[in-house]
Amino acid sequence: MHRRRRTALALTAATLAAAPLLTACGSEAHPGAAAVVGGERIDVATVQQQASDVRDAQQASEQSEELVKKSGQLNRAKLHSLIFGRVLDRAAKDAGVTVSRKEVQQIHSAAAAQSGGDQGLRTVMLEQRWVAPGQIEDDLRKEVQLPKLAEALGADLQTPEGQQVVGKALTEASKALHIDVNPRYGSWDDQKVQLSTYKAPWITQVTTFQGQDPQAGA
């Protein structure tokens, strides 16, 4: 009788000890991961490297002190962008949307022309979007992808109704990816399609090139 009780207690203790491992997310269940999206890791090192690249570019700017001060949430901003990119990829794939290298190059040329040349574009992207020179292509790719997604869905991004349609598609893609974020960065909100600790509404961050502030709508 006593032996059975001790065995039962031992099993209960073992179950309780294992519970945090079974329910943990982020760093505990996936050591070194900032997030897991669709079963694929986004490593903390990747987020930190992207943030470091931005910091290096900021330090080289004449407005370095101001830029660094304004971008206090840089690590969260970078993780948000990486996750959002994968959500947008999934929504685009579900809608049969593809983006070619040529299309990205075309919007790059248009954005550079609007910004007064390549150097002007790099300045705008760094100061207003916290994007380092080497990250510009990936960022602009979203500007091609989102309008094409809207077009495939028969939605007009310039109207609240159209934004709602696209937002629904992004939410569905987000839910399908089962996004698990390391608690140090917050959590992922499928409905708003953003990190809980970093407010960057999708509609203000990747619509037509405007060089908008990353904190717009915060």
Structural key phrases:
218 residues, mainly alpha, three-stranded antiparallel beta sheet, two-stranded antiparallel sheet, 9 helices, disordered N terminus, disordered C terminus
Strand content: 5-15%
Task: Note the main sheet.
Answer: 3 strands, antiparallel
Number of separate structural domains: 1
Based on Cα principal axes, name the global outline: globular
Which class of secondary structure composition applies to the elements? Answer: mainly alpha
Regions with little confidence, pLDDT below 50 for 5+ residues: 2-27, 210-218
Radius of gyration: 21 Å
- Share of helical residues: 55-70%
Order of helices and strands: HEEHHHHHHHEEEH
Q: How many DSSP-defined strands?
A: 5
Count of separate DSSP helical elements: 9
Rounded to the nearest angstrom, the distance between the terminal CA atoms is 62 Å
Task: Walk across the major sheet and give the strand order.
Answer: 2-1-3
